[in-house]
Design goal:
The complex is a heterodimer of chains A (about 350) and B (about 550). With about 350 residues, chain A is an alpha+beta fold. Chain A has two domains: about 220 residues, Rossmann fold (3-Layer(aba) Sandwich), CATH 3.40.50.300; about 120 residues, Nucleic acid-binding proteins (OB fold (Dihydrolipoamide Acetyltransferase, E2P), Beta Barrel). Chain A is built from nine helices and 20 strands. In chain A, the strands form four sheets. Chain A has a six-stranded mixed sheet, with helices on both faces. Chain A has a five-stranded antiparallel sheet with strand order 13-12-11-14-20. A five-stranded antiparallel sheet of chain A has the order 15-19-16-17-18. The longest helix of chain A has 18 residues. Chain A starts with a strand and ends with a strand. The radius of gyration of chain B is 25 Å and the shape is globular. The longest helix of chain B has about 40 residues. Chain B is mostly helical and about 550 residues long. Chain B has two domains: about 220 residues, MetI-like (MetI-like fold, Orthogonal Bundle); about 220 residues, Orthogonal Bundle (MetI-like fold). Helix content of chain B is about 75%, strand content about 0%. A two-stranded antiparallel ribbon of chain B has the order 1-2. Classes of the chains: A alpha+beta (about 350), B mainly alpha (about 550). Chains A and B meet through β6 and α2 of A and α7 and α8 of B.
């Protein structure tokens, strides 16, 4: 439905987006994930028509939308600061988009009422938006964006302005409401938890380019490169050199790895050792990737202990079920199948 | 904390006594004058028409001036807030210049542009071969309106422009995403959000136009008298003090009502939420319409702001006619004679205004004003920065002098201090005192935010480390306040140097100030008088410009003075 093609955009004379291409299908929820300043919001603004790309095209159902004025696109956008009109009441805010397309008064009234009922805020209709709490504002902003029934909904860090507890609560609500709307959605965030919870598909934006694209599980299991693994906090990253199809040389010693056909033997790569995949004690000794590690720190986190261990000069994080004492030497191993060799980003 | 309580009283005491004696006493004297006259003669000393005519004219010209100022100022504010173009900064600084120019300078400048000896007439006379000036715009309503637009456009640019740059751009964008056409987004969202600031700025402009004195006196002439000019005429030419007093009371009431309306506007419920920190909203004009707008607007502003100033400076350097007393040969063209003439002490001349004395007097008054206003301002600001019941009671008392115009102050002084020791001697201390009262609000508004901006924890930290109270002030407050104090000094100096309203009442023949001398020169016939008025105005212009440049350089960004 939406197709963004080879978008370039400069900001303050520096390239911000360097050739972004992606599509969004009907009813699909796509998360655009990247660190702050990566140009995620700018990408949304280009799709909304609030900014012009330096080059590249935006297509909607095959039609070139690149030069179409914002108000003729029929897309919805929810701002990070919500931008609720402070001089209008809750109901007037929601009615705004309907009014602009020239719906009749009774029609607007009934749609606004329905919309308020959806967010369970009927009694708030005539309140000024300046008196709402953060969570209420967020709900009104979403209702306002959805009210004119946009073809496509875009959300720019919709939970970014809220504190952690409220976020978790609203995330569930948002997930249901976005799903129910059955609209194509582009959701911009820097928070991977939100992205994993919501997305049908993830787009990872780094240094002006899309570095990986795919379903959350796929991205989680097979990060495309070191930046993805490190941005998503997937685990320990250890520089390595491939010395045979299934062996690498690292500071930890030689490790056995699954065959990585995309990496040339003899070239550098980075090993991903996930904290959850580590085996300990008896289970470890029998494996080939067996290491001796000294515990530097141990933090109890409920289901497991997060250990910080030292192997040679390298510090690793592992999750262990055992309460081992700091300073103790333990055996750790990663099964070869759990390891991944990533190209250097 | 009992000791700091008694200290607060001391802080209040000095400015309080000063205000009581030099502001409230003269004000009361005006009232007394009016009512004792009424008591003695009934309401015989005036006819209603004498009041309604100037009052209605004042309101009418203020309304027209404000409207015209908005018509020029709003697009100008938009230009500076939204567009980036070559020379933008330069033009912006230029557009703020009029606000600090003394009224006599502005009036003289417009005289050199549209007056009988002004460039417009000179050029027309040359082109059409006429012997008399063909157009006389002086002593007309358009001349007053023009000068007011010149003066107050900078207020609109500054106040509305400031809101425009700080208005969160997401509101407009959100409206457009919600299907609003650009003009709908402006009408439905941006305009209502900017309305408080537009209304506030308009009221301020209206207030300034309503109380404008020097410009109206010098450009409007006798048939276009506003209330202020009428007060001056009644007091200084007709010696009808009760009438002048009555007009002053009416003036005070209207001023008070306008200020009241302004204060009501101050706290719109969405005021804070709308404004974010300054956004990067400026961009190069992209399409043809924007380019034409930027070019036309720049041209208009350059003509509006540059032509009077350029006209004044250039006209002060050329001569076209014989000076009085000169017969036969004389040179037309470039001359510095008007300037050199200023520094020649013609004691034998019939002029009662001695330029050199005026310059010396003005400098002395300005230095005194600078010292009095800044020290009083510091004390008042400290007193006002204390929270508590006392401050709440005192605040209106301190802020009332804001509403009183210089002319009323002058009249009050004239009535109150009309006997020795005030009138004796060649040196009227009353002038710097009146100037200090006029400069005081500006000083307080500069220093008070600076004091309030000092985190209390800094003082507490110093005290915990063993600093005595006066040491705390020396080590913490003073270094932080230094900037604000320098700005206040420069401000009060420039205000005093250009002040005309009060001085026109208080400066006598032996103790003229620069603006009063300029006024006297320009009201007299003769090319030399005219030239000397222009030369002095040019010097005053340069001094004021230097002063305000200093203020702009030192002032912290974001401090607003009105």
């Amino acid at each position: 439905m939406l197709r963004v093609e080879d978008i370039y955009k400069d900001y303050d004379g520096k390239p911000l987006l360097k050739g972004i291409t992606f599509e969004v299908q009907e009813g699909e929820l796509v998360c655009l994930l990247g660190s702050s300043g990566s140009g995620k919001s700018t990408m949304l603004r280009i799709i909304a028509g609030l900014e012009e790309p330096k080059s590249g095209k935006v297509y909607w159902k095959g039609e070139d939308f690149t030069d179409k004025p914002t108000h003729e696109r029929g897309f919805g956008l929810m701002f990070q600061d919500y931008a609720l009109f402070p001089h209008r009441s809750v109901a007037e805010n929601i009615a705004f988009g309907l009014r602009m397309v020239g719906r009749s008064k009774p029609e607007i009234d009934s749609l606004v009422e329905k919309s308020l009922a959806n967010i369970r805020m009927q009694e708030f209709a005539d309140r000024p938006v300046t008196e709402l709490s953060g969570g209420e504002q967020q709900r009104v902003a979403l209702a306002r964006a959805l009210a004119p029934d946009p073809y496509l909904l875009m959300l720019d860090e919709p939970l970014g302005a809220l504190d952690h507890n409220l976020r978790t609560e609203l995330l569930k609500d948002l997930r249901k409401r976005l799903h129910d709307s059955q609209k194509p959605v582009i959701y911009v965030t820097h928070d991977q938890e939100e992205a994993f919870a919501l997305a049908d598909r993830l787009l990872l934006l780094h240094d002006g380019k899309l570095v990986q694209e795919g379903a959350p599980e796929r991205v989680f299991n097979q990060p495309a490169n070191t930046w993805v693994a490190s941005f998503l906090g997937l685990g320990n990253l250890v520089p390595a050199k491939l010395i045979s199809p299934n062996r690498v040389e690292t500071d930890l010693g030689q490790l056995e790895v699954p065959i990585a056909p995309e990496i040339e033997p003899g070239s550098d790569c980075v090993m991903l050792l996930r904290p959850d995949d580590a085996l300990f004690g008896e289970n470890a000794i029998s494996l080939s990737n067996y290491l001796r590690a000294v515990i530097r720190d141990s933090v109890f986190l409920g289901n497991y202990f997060r250990l910080e261990v030292m192997v040679g000069q390298t510090i690793l994080q592992v999750h262990s079920p055992h309460p081992d004492a700091i300073g103790e030497t333990i055996s750790i191993a990663w099964p070869a199948s759990s390891l991944q060799c990533l190209p250097v980003a | 904390m009992k000791r700091s309580g008694s200290l607060t009283w001391l802080l209040w005491l000095i400015p309080l006594v000063f205000l009581l004696f030099f502001f409230y006493q003269p004000l009361l004297a005006i009232f007394r004058q009016v009512f004792s006259e009424r008591f003695n003669q009934g309401w015989q000393f005036f006819s209603w028409a004498q009041i309604t005519r100037p009052l209605l004219f004042t309101l009418w010209q203020a309304f027209l001036s404000t409207l015209l100022t908005l018509i020029v100022g709003l697009p100008a504010a938009y230009l500076f807030a939204r567009f980036e173009f070559a020379g933008r900064k330069w033009l912006h600084t230029l557009s703020l210049l009029p606000f600090i120019l003394p009224t006599v300078v502005v009036a003289t400048a417009f005289n050199t542009l549209i007056g009988p000896r002004g460039w417009l007439n000179l050029i027309l006379m040359d082109l059409l071969n006429l012997s008399n000036p063909p157009v006389n715009l002086l002593n007309s309503l358009p001349a007053i309106l023009l000068a007011h637009v010149f003066y107050n456009t900078s207020i609109i640019i500054r106040m509305v422009g400031n809101s425009l740059t700080r208005l969160n751009p997401h509101y407009d964008e959100a409206a457009r995403v919600l299907n609003a056409k650009p003009w709908q987004a402006f009408r439905e969202v941006s305009l209502p959000l900017l309305m408080p600031s537009i209304l506030g700025a308009s009221l301020l402009v209206f207030l300034f136009d309503f109380t404008s004195f020097g410009v109206v006196l010098m450009l409007g002439g006798p048939q276009y008298a506003t209330v202020e000019v009428e007060i001056y005429t009644q007091a200084m030419s007709r010696f009808n003090l009760p009438m002048a007093g009555l007009l002053s009371m009416i003036q005070l009431v209207v001023t008070f009502l306008i200020t009241l309306a302004q204060n009501r506007l101050k706290n719109p419920r969405f005021g804070k939420a709308v404004l974010s920190s300054e956004q990067k909203t400026r961009q190069q004009p992209v399409n043809m319409r924007q380019k034409i707008f930027v070019i036309l607007m720049c041209l208009l502003l350059v003509v509006l702001f540059v032509s009077p100033i350029l006209s004044l400076v250039s006209r002060s350097l050329v001569t076209f006619e014989a000076a009085r007393g000169e017969r036969g040969e004389f040179e037309t063209g470039f001359t510095t004679r008007y300037y050199t003439e200023l520094f020649q002490n013609r004691t034998g001349s019939i002029f009662y205004a001695n330029p050199l004395a005026a310059i010396r007097n003005s400098l002395v008054y300005s230095v005194l004003t600078m010292l009095i206003a800044t020290s009083l301002g510091l004390l008042s600001a400290y007193a006002l920065s204390r929270s508590g019941k006392l401050t709440r009671w005192m605040e209106p008392f301190f802020m009332l002098p804001l509403g009183a115009s210089a002319v009323i102050l002058g009249l009050g002084f004239l009535i109150t201090f009309n006997n020795p020791p005030w009138t004796s001697g060649r040196f009227p201390i009353l002038i710097p005192i009146a100037h200090s009262l006029i400069a005081l609000p500006f000083v307080v508004r500069t220093i008070l935010p600076a004091i309030q901006g000092i985190p209390h924890s800094l003082r507490e930290a110093a005290r915990v480390m063993g600093a005595k109270p006066w040491k705390v002030i020396r080590e913490i407050d003073l270094p932080i306040l230094l900037r604000a104090v320098i700005v206040s000094l420069a401000f009060s100096f420039t205000i005093s140097l250009g002040e005309f309203g009060a001085s026109s009442f208080l400066a006598n023949a032996r103790t003229p100030t620069i603006p009063v001398t300029i006024f006297r020169y320009i009201s007299q016939p003769g090319a030399l008088n005219y030239g000397q008025a222009l030369a002095m105005s040019t010097l005053l212009l340069l001094t004021s410009a230097a002063g305000s440049l200093l203020i702009e350089k030192i002032r912290l960004p974001g401090e607003e003075l009105f």
